[in-house]
Amino acid sequence: MMAKNKEPRPPSYAVSVVGLSGTEKDKGNCGVGKSCLCNRFVRSKADEYYPEHTSVLSTIDFGGRVVNNDHFLYWGDVTQSGEDGIECRIHVIEQTEFIDDQTFLPHRSTNLQPYIKRAAASKLQSAEKLMYICTDQLGLEQDFEQKQMPEGKLSIDGFLLCIDVSQGCNRKFDDQLKFVNNLYIQLSKSKKPIIIAATKCDECVDHYLREVQAFASNKKNLVVVETSARFNVNVETCFTALVQMMDKTRGKPKIIPYLDAYKTQRQLVVTATDKFEKLVQTVRDYHATWKTVSNKLKNHPDYEEYINLEGTKKAKNTFSKHIEQLKQEHIRKRREEYVNALPRALNNLLSNLDEIEHLSWSEALKLMEKRPDFQSCFVVLEKTPWDETDHIDKVNDRRIPFDLLTTLEAEKVYQNHVQHLISEKRRVEMKEKFKKTLEKIQFISPGQPWEEVICFVMEDEAFKYITDADSKEVYSRHQREIVEKAKEEFQEMLFEHSELFYDLDLNATPSSDKMSEIHAVLSEEPRYKALQKLAPDRESLLLKHIGFVYHPTKETCLSGQNCMDIKVEQLLANSLLQLDHGRSNLYYDSANIDKVNLFILGKDGLAQELANEIRTQSTDDEYALDGKIYELDLRPVDAKSPYLLTQLWTSTFKPHGCFCVFNSIESLNFIGECIGKIRTEASQIRRDKYMANLPFTLILANQRDSISKNLPILRHQGQQLANKLQCPFVDVPAGTYPRKFNETQIKQALRGVLEAVKHNFDVVSPVPTIKDLSEADLRIVMCAMCGDPFSVDLILSPFLDSHSCSAAQAGQSNSLMLDKIIGEKRRRIQITILSYHSSIGVRKDELVHGYILVYSAKRKASMGMLRAFLSEVQDTIPVQLVAVTDSQADFFENEAIKELMTEGEHIATEITAKFTALYSLSQYHRQTEVFTLFFSDVLEKKNMIENSYMSDSTRETTHTSEDVFPRSPRGSSLDYNYPDSEDDTEGPPPYSPIGDDVRLLPTPSDRSKYRLDLEGNEYPIHSTPLNCHDHERNHKVPPPIKPKPLVPKTNVKKLDPNLLKTIEAGICKNPRKQPSRVPTAPPENIDQSDNYADPVDTIFKHKGFADDIYAVPDDSQNRIIKVRNSIVINTQGDEENGYSDRISRSHGERRPSKYKYKSKTLFSKAKSYYRRTHSDASDDEAFTTSKTKRKGRHRGSEEDPLLSPVETWKGGIDNPAITSDQELDDKKMKKKTHKVKEEKKKKKTKALNPPIRRNWESNYFGMPLQDLVTPEKPIPLFVEKCVQFIEDTGLCTEGLYRVSGNKTDQDNIQKQFDQDRSISLESMEVTVNAVAGALKAFFADLPDPLIPYSLHQELLETSKILDKTERLHELKEIVKKFHPVNYDVFKYIITHLNRVSQQYKTNFMTADNLSICFWPTLMRPDFENRAFLSTTKIHQSVIETFIQQCQFFFYNGEIVEAPNTVACQLPPSNTVQMVEPMVPLQLPPPLQPQLIQPQLPADPLGII
């Protein structure tokens, strides 16, 4: 304890800090820095340093324990270690003078001495005086550390004299220095060490400091230390130096000048700041708070050092700046994200360059706000700007703040976006241009590498523009396309050569010889060679095809989901279900009826008469029938009533059937028209399924004269119409009755209605009523090729749209059932629809009564597959060929379609099969009647087919040359055949490929002369006296009364009545060369048995049969022509496609063969493959055929510009209605030398003169145009008269120039003009259409066309110019090249046509329609030139342009916009004057003009 007590205590020194003090007057408004110097020394930490210390105190504060009524402050003590490690304690006293805040005079204290003497005191005493910390401590001492001055007294050991060297505050430095000098004198008396502290050196005035130094230098041992309390510079040094002076044992400190000391201090602060900032930068979340971070860092030495040097406030400011930087960095990143996302948003909302290319940014903003996707790309904030809202923290919301778009940066992005779209558009254009360049390079083959092609495109502009990557991408795309196309074409080629593959049985394996044959044949094909560089792929495709051919299933079908089997199953599954459901709703309520609602339709009061007769036989409207009473509600309707359709459709009357009564040809025709209107209204306009399937019953009213010669004709026509309508026909019973109707007729008719209602219910009854599959009367297989370019419902609609269609037996997903009246009975027909590959198994293994073979006329492969399939079908099985295309116009505009349709009909002709054409743009095919003839033929041959099947189950085929054309049990005409007796009840004929667009009926003005037959054709009525002209048209019904002779009658070919006008014109005007089918009319002195004759050269001669020559009148002048015909023993009068049966029925039964031995086309096609790989054998070695070529069979009408004999000296043109003529056959059979020579000879000698259409000599018509005009009258007089007449009387006539006028009237107009040039057309009482036809005939008779041949090519090339203005100006220049005479007439006629087109709303003749009618007349086309036929549409458009732009071409007018042709489409209710509306009853199958192209012209060349 003693030792411990003897341990020396560290020395303790008391230092008094003195300097200028007093009132503001004495020291100025601020002190000299004594308090700050003491504060910094005693409490050096920045947080404990207070820069403001006041000496103005209240009396209370002055009397507090801190001041303690003294004029000095005790700052506490500091323990300090010297360099030698010796510690000492320094007590710090500040001598000051406190001022009363009330009087601003020094407070009174116990020591009343002035400051100079008081500050020099070496003994200080103040009991319980507390340590001073800061001004805020005064009055709140308990809130601060309380430390008393030791023992209440201190002895001063040294003085620290403070001199302020700064500018000072209202204080003169000299006065301060004087005060200091006096104070120094008093201090020096105490003999205590003194140090001068030059304060506020951070604001130092140099000369003040020099004066202080000068002052000190004049004193002995007086040291000056330059200090700054604010920056803590040399504060400790001055106290340490004073202590050294008090304790000489201590080392003398080095006095460092302020600037050097300041640099050292600042370096220390900078280092600490850097360390602290790095420490702060570890904080990455701008949401962090100072409190959280400071608590975390408070023990870190870098943190503590910085806090000590700079203080918490600065540290917090540094932290806040860092947090703000983090926030701004986050906002910057978000802004960058938004700006980067803006182009994508603009691409979504403003991707159309044409829409925004010329929009400003503000306009684009308004446009974007209207977009539906705006909200998904942008967000509109309630508060703005966006970076001052909480939206910056919604990192998952990627939408762009809309107010960001108002910045210049966003506007720049928009501008860049527009420029990008422009450049991208240019880039895409260049890529497409480069793509087109590649397409033009013919030698680029599938699989060719880019390196082999690049050298050929180096100079291409587009190639230079795009990048290498783009060019390679374009080439890769091009390669993919051509490879894919080449593979598709290769696959299509394989199908086209189907005969090469389908000659083996299913599941067979092709031998090596067969494979060699396949490769040998295919290697000649360009499509085979196209895949030369992709040989493995080619071989793979070939093997895959072969595998499918011999192992076909719908799962492995090469068409995938387009397999016909799959599509048929899907369609039938949906359609039959809907069909049955719909019918059940229609007929369920009618199953058990007690009340029968009947419409009675008749003309001229006939309906009312029948209704009265029924009421007469009823009792209170109740009628007894078969033991049951029925209440009858009768609604007689006059067929002539304008309210016919309105009367039928009433909400209160639902008819069960309709009685249609007639008593004359006229009333029958009228009934037919009404039924057509009702069905059209129900099916196409009102969509009324009930009325569309309304049962009709035809009733023939009794004549007053029961032996009327018209009764057999009425009975015959009524039965035919009933067959067509699939409804009962009630005939007049045998015997004589006084009234028009009798009870037997009424009961029979009523039974028919009840049976029809019951049948309709039975079809859809939930009780199974479908017969077993084996009980089907007929089994028909319809075959179609997978991948053909038509919809399945197109070929099935004739069945599905029928009310007699229903589902087949369960499990037959590709079959349907038809209940149809054939002959006199209702038959059940099963139709199975299969692909060709599925049909092969059926053909070989199952009983089939007939085939409907469908092919696309757009696809050669479809025809190839049909040929391959048909070749192996037994020739005893009837076949119906069906060609499918879009419209009849395809035949005329597309050579490939024309060829395939012609080939199909040619094959049908060779094998005595049916042929029809279906058009996707026509609605007529939606009737089962198109197959009625075929079904009848199948039914007739049914027993023979079944016997053949049963007797020859293996069905081996023979290939002998005998019986190549075997006798078919029954022929059937491709044309509109009329039965020879009233018992023949065949339905309507199949389609003619002429198509829907061709008008075949007489004009309405001629309706009264004609009556309606089974097919809807019209011909003269026999109730009136027959003149020669009318009798020419009547070639279907044999003249009554005269019996047929007993001599054997040759097979007779019945002619289409719609061909009559065309044929008459051909006979009259060119007797030397007749159309292939010559209608003949017997004069009064010729036996009626000779009324039928086949046209010249249309019958194949069979060996052993002699020719028979018929002498028949040529025309009304009874000129004679020779008609050759083969004699065969067949009295049916019903042939198949121009062939009579080859073998007499007396030859007996024969063994079935195959169709390929019956058709030269099929046989030669199959044999051609053999010849390619074996020998060059002739077809005739194994195929027997006639030496005589078949002439063209014309089916056209005068309304058809391409089928009429426009240029008869050229022999007509190919079309599906004309079989190959001599010249065409010669072209196709070039293997024989003499045929080639004949062809060349014909070409050399072919006349180029126009046809002679007149049968009188004329010195006006047919003359050169130059001979008919003068300079004074540049327009031919006849043309002027015709145009003037038309414009005065008929400019608004419907169908002007399209509807042909009467042929005789046209001739009379020209004959009369020949005789008298001054004749007035008005006085002739001719129709406008006749004058229009005569005008067209005038131009057709000119030696040269009005538009010279020399300019045709220029017109063709000019019409291809894309720019409209440039094209029109070029055409204008070409027109100027016309001969002046031609120019004047052309200008005149085009101006007239322009006036006609302006009335299109009433005449329905637009410039387009007129051009169709007139271009062949004005340009005189060479229809035999196939190249010319391919450009017919272009030439027609040229004439259309001349008509539309008439003012521009001839009168220097402005270019006009083309009128809206839609406005001129003929409405269904307004088509009567041009062509009757299409109804199931009235028209031949090809017609449906209002549904396709009503603009097709009538007789454009005016020849007929």
Fold topology:
Layout: H1 2-5, E1 12-19, H2 24-27, H3 34-42, E2 56-57, H4 59-63, E3 72-81, E4 87-95, E5 99-100, H5 115-119, E6 123-125, E7 153-155, E8 158-164, H6 173-188, E9 194-199, H7 206-217, E10 223-226, H8 235-246, H9 258-280, H10 290-297, H11 301-349, H12 353-356, H13 361-369, H14 374-377, E11 378-379, E12 400-401, H15 408-440, H16 461-465, H17 468-496, H18 498-501, H19 512-522, H20 526-529, H21 535-550, H22 564-587, E13 595-602, H23 606-616, E14 622-625, E15 628-638, H24 644-648, E16 657-662, H25 665-685, H26 689-692, E17 696-700, H27 711-725, E18 729-730, H28 743-764, E19 778-784, H29 792-800, E20 805-807, E21 815-822, E22 825-835, H30 836-845, E23 850-856, H31 860-871, E24 879-885, H32 889-893, H33 895-910, E25 914-919, H34 932-951, E26 1010-1012, E27 1018-1020, H35 1028-1033, H36 1060-1069, E28 1107-1113, E29 1120-1126, H37 1160-1173, H38 1222-1228, H39 1233-1245, H40 1277-1289, H41 1303-1315, H42 1328-1341, H43 1352-1358, H44 1364-1375, H45 1380-1398, H46 1400-1403, H47 1407-1419, H48 1426-1429, H49 1432-1444, H50 1446-1451
Parallel strand pairs: 1-4, 1-8, 2-5, 8-9, 9-10, 11-12, 13-15, 13-16, 16-17, 17-18, 19-22, 19-23, 23-24, 24-25
Antiparallel strand pairs: 3-4, 6-7, 14-15, 20-21, 21-22, 26-27, 28-29
